[in-house]
Hints:
Layout: H1 16-31, H2 39-64, H3 82-104, H4 114-155, H5 169-191, H6 215-228, H7 254-262, H8 270-275, H9 279-300, H10 321-335, H11 348-364, H12 373-423
Helix pairs in contact: 2-3, 2-9, 2-10, 3-9, 3-12, 4-5, 4-6, 4-7, 4-9, 4-12, 5-11, 7-9, 9-10, 11-12
Amino acid sequence: MPATDSTSSPATHTSFGRSLLSLRHRDHQIHHAPPTPDHNTTHASSSAAAEIDAFQHHAADLLLDLLPSGSSAGPVPEILSLAWTRHLLDSFLVCLEEFRSLLFASPSLARPPLDRLLSDFFDRAVKALDLCNALRDGLDLLRQWRKHLAIAAAALSPHADDPSAPLGQAQIRRARKALTDLTILMLDDKDTSVGAGHRNRSFGLGSSTARGGGGDAQARGHHRRSSSGGSSGGSGSGSHFRSLSWSVSRSWSASRQLQAIGGNLPVPRAHDVAATGGLASAVYTMGSVLFVVAWALVAAIPCQDRGLQAHFAAPRSFPWAGPVTALYERVLEESKKKDRKHSCGLLKEIHQVERCSRQLMEITDAAQFPLDEEKDAEVREAALELVQVCETLKDGLDPLERQVREMFHRIVRTRTEILDSLSRPHTTE
């Protein structure tokens, strides 16, 4: 999808108070008389400004808690692990809910320039819906890989009747066959950027759920669900398709989608901040959080034509600028590591799958049977790590998919409710 056209010049927020005074001064020049002070209105404006400021600082804290060196809430899961990715999605959902509450508390949603800023934000948010579908395809891909790991782990497990018996040639061959199939699948998905078919699966709600159709992603989701008889759960029939069958179109690109979400993200101008009572800053904050979270998810999970070329730099005047920049740079640093540079995704568990498979293949290559005690111990140790990775994937993939689904539906719901509010007639005070 092409990026939304939106241009604005960067501006800081130090002149917020002076901008408000200048607006009052212009009002005085037009009406030749100062407005009558309204204590209730002034108090409400101060309260709204405080809530917007609190939202931005809370977003900063949530992002900071994703960094191992910056968390004040206790131990942080290892970056780009399944647990960390779930933590990332939790943070996004909290931010989106607080943002939604701020918008509904505002009486001026349909007034310029806030209506324009919200329209731009939701245009970008709709582009994240296809990303959610592609991410679920990537999680299903990991399930397929896990099946091959489980076969290898079962083949190398100790015999029930005699756990101390050396591993036999048939066990090693079966494990190597499963790991070879896995390696072929992973290489196929790493080197090919487009799919061979379609899974006919989407998080999309029916077209009646979202105002105005809810974007191309939702329309496609409705069509797919109708043709496939329902959306899949944690581990549905999608795993019977070959790994590179994506629910998005063949020409779809995660890299281009990220560019569309974050490209030319309009930094609010000082007079827009003043005219919206600070809500312009909240809209920009939510747009930035949406982009960084989507970018980190694409970095972690296999996606069609994934790429991390999209660049983002937030003005330092925002309280969350430091944490979001640190998070962006930390993920980028992981992507440049030699052992992860050419991986299907930066997820820690993907790296473990690749390493365990390679290690077991090397240990068992040209093995002599029966295995001597030292070689048998090496194989069992490597197999134990493989079993642990299998269990981590088994326990972590379904909860993560539920969170991606929740991200999809929360974006749709928020967009629908706000656009419905914008479409209602409003009176000018």
